[in-house]
Amino acid sequence: MVIGVLGLLIIIVFMISMNTGYIKLSPLEVIRTLFGFGTDKQHLILFEFRLPRIIIAVLVGMGLAVSGCILQGISRNALADPGILGINAGAGLAVMLFISFFPSTTATPVFLLPVLAFLGAGITAVIIYSLAYKRHEGISPMRLLLTGVAIAAGISSVMVVLTLRLSPENYQFVATWLAGSIWGSNWKFVLSLLPWIILLIPFAFSKARVLNVLNLGDLTATGLGASIEKERRVLLAAAVGLAGASVSVSGGIGFVGLIGPHLARQLVGSRHQFLIPAAAMTGGLLVLIADTIGRWLLQPSEIPAGIVVAVIGAPYFLYLLSRIKD
Length: 326
Hints:
mainly alpha; two-stranded antiparallel sheet; 14 helices; about 75% helix
């Protein structure tokens, strides 16, 4: 029921997003063009510009939200989010290093970017996990959060230094990308991101029972026969893959991995069999709404989706933080 409602909302926002832009496309024109009865101009606008961008926005939202859902499950930390923990920043640093040393972004192999982002996010996750882990105490939720925030701040500083060596054209590109703009908006980027989403979200769903057991605590999980550290590392790799691939085409969109799972938890509860699909749908809907608002608010200019999500996410993060302190 909830998944159906979320799917219907995505379809409604999809139609609104199709009609948002310098050239309007009514819902009837969108439907006619989808079935091959539109004009050449409508076909060009729909299939070459808006449709791939909308699909990427939904896929990115799904990837980031499920990544946050996994991180919250394995760390038992309600504030765990790939953006807050610095994993997105690590992915961004890897992409930015590539752009710094190979400045011609037009020649950048599209399918290489998710791999580079995965490596950057993976190295960052290993560093954060190693620094937050203590032999006899395991992972402390607050230590994990603070370590991630510190690493993210350090990476952001390095990225600011790297911008000094960029040409004006690439600097503008990187500045927009860091703000969370869905810059890769053609079918090549859809195809580069799609395999990661198709493989890793079902994999996370297959591990729903493990995430449920991990939520019970290390002692109980061990008593039930779960191999805690092995499962954590596997699930962490899946979360890193989803976040890295999403960041490679969307830039630094934060808070989706925090808001998506929390909203989904309010709708379907904490059992990951229901939580993971609901979080994916919620995240996709959130980024699609943010991208549509960003394109509509200051036409013909655009506000990056990451800024719109941050306006919503920052107060929500403070609200969650105040609840934890209580």
